[in-house]
Backbone:
């Protein structure tokens, strides 16, 4: 039995310099993918229309998957290359920037929420021991389809 860490936190989607919107973000981590964390955002914040024609409110959460180490590093110093960037901000906040072809989202978190989540992930898989939880056969099977 593998423990999964899941925590829902409040965040702010930065819309302009003076406007933001509150949203809930579900953070999750599991030893079956020991190098990655997941952030799930409510479907109503998606720019995509779901294929079922119900509109964004009827769609699924938007899930971003990226390295646990990136989130850890970004709490202290700007980190990230590519689609996900994490950096500390004033007032004990952390900014997560998500880049997609549809646009860029800037999400502000309370750093304490992210630190607590990361601490809980380390109770499941300590940093530096991720390789002990990797399943090379499963990963290869997924890669080859």
Residues:
């Amino acid at each position: 039995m593998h423990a999964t860490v899941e925590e829902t936190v409040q965040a702010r989607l930065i819309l302009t310099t003076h406007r933001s919107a509150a949203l809930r973000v579900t953070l999750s981590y599991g030893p079956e993918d020991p190098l990655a964390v997941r952030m799930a955002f409510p479907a109503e914040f998606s720019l995509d229309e779901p294929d079922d024609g119900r509109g964004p409110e009827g769609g699924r959460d938007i899930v971003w998957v990226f390295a646990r180490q990136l989130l850890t590093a970004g709490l202290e110093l700007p980190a990230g290359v590519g689609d996900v960037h994490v950096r500390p901000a004033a007032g004990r906040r952390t900014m997560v920037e998500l880049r997609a072809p549809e646009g860029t989202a800037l999400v502000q978190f309370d750093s304490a929420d992210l630190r607590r989540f990361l601490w809980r992930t380390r109770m499941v898989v300590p940093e530096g021991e991720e390789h002990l939880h990797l399943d090379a056969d499963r990963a290869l099977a997924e890669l080859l389809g």
